[in-house]
Amino acid sequence: MGTEYLLSALVLLVGIAASLYSYLVTKRTRIIEERISSLEKALEKVVRQNKLVARAALAALRSSEAEDFLAKLRAKRRRRYIAFYIVYEGEEPPSPQEVEKAILRAVERLGGQLSVALGRVQLVYYDPERAAGIIRCTHDTKYVVLAAMGLVRRIGRRRAVIVPVRTSGTIKRAKRALPS
Amino acid sequence: MKICDLHVAPRSLEDAHGIASLLAGMGVRCVAIDNPNPREARAYTKPFIEAGLEAYTRVTIEADTWGKALKALRRISPYYDLVVVKPKSAEVARHAAKDPRVALVQLPPGMARYMDKSQARLLREGGAGVEVSLLPLLHSDDPRRSLRGIMIIARRAAAYEAMLVITSGARGKWELWSPAAMKALLVSFGVPENIASLSVTGYPLSILYSKRLRG
């Protein structure tokens, strides 16, 4: 009888120990799970923050690029003045309107409408007596305008050749280069 | 440095006078007059000399086989200062580039494909240059095509370091190109500025002095 009691008490003790162990294990796993979930949350938060940081950095970069672009746009475009004279057929020299139209058409033919718009091509001075003038453009479209002037073979309805004399940064020096 | 236009082809003395006066006004100092008749070519040099320009005679040989070109070269080269070959086939283009008598190989815009690496090497070895005439830009049916052909030749010549000579090919004063416009056209094609300048000054002069056959 004594040994039976002892055995049953031992079984009970083992059962209690096992239940205690299982309770402890479940508690531990719960704690671990909670920690993992909190870590996941923290990680998500970090990722979210990083995303925000990345987005902010990208926006900053874009804004700096935009600022550079705007600065380029705002920068004063260097002007070039091309002095030229015209050799024409007949007695009467071509009118300034005809000259400007012929040059603009040639620039448009060679470089397209964008070149005309960006180049801000304009006849700024014309002396019909000497058939000489000055055309203004930007420094980056200078060569297109010069090449287009070479393509002009007719002004109005008469044959003509435009001879560029000098390219200058100021209208004063360009005027000085014109043939007298 | 002297500015050159190595291809003008006046059809009469009157045209020659007109071209000479306009070229002198443009600052050109050296010209080559193209005419199939050597006597006429020499006669047409007079108005240019009177206008204060250095004038030379030149002939353009057009051939589809090198045999024909060689025959013409032997026959007419003693009468001219410069001989230019306008090839109609790849064979002529290659042989002409090597020949010591040939000063320039004129490539029309439609033959831009012949201006390749080997052609440039042959031109360098022979001391000749590649000539691009701007006349097709004024008179061809499709100027855009001519523009593209000229652009390809000019860019390739610059990239492969061949001597590029740009000429007006004018038959009258209304077809003349000013040197500034010729240079600007090359620069707007993408050719470096120094090479564009050399194509109207240094390259034609060096070809003229090294390849001149007479005098």
Structural write-up:
The complex is a heterodimer of chains A (180) and B (215). Chain A is α+β, with helices and mostly antiparallel strands. Chain A folds into 2 domains: 1-76; 79-177, 2-Layer Sandwich (Alpha-Beta Plaits). In chain A, 63% of the residues lie in helices and 20% in strands. Chain A has helices at 2-74, 96-111, 113-119, 142-151, 171-177, and strands at residues 79-88, 122-127, 132-138, 154-155, 158-168. Chain A has a 5-stranded antiparallel sheet with strand order 2-3-1-5-4, with helices on both faces. Chain A is rod-shaped. Chain A starts with a helix and ends with a helix. In chain A, 27% of the residues are buried. The model of chain A has no long low-confidence stretch (mean pLDDT 89). Chain B has 215 residues and is α/β, with parallel strands linked by helices. Chain B is 49% helix and 20% strand. Chain B has helices at 13-26, 38-50, 66-76, 90-98, 117-126, 135-139, 143-159, 179-189, 193-198, 202-211, and strands spanning 3-8, 28-34, 54-63, 82-87, 104-106, 129-133, 163-167. In chain B, helix 4 packs parallel to helix 5 (117-126). A 7-stranded parallel sheet of chain B has the order 1-2-3-4-5-6-7, with helices on both faces. Chain B has 10 helices and 7 strands.
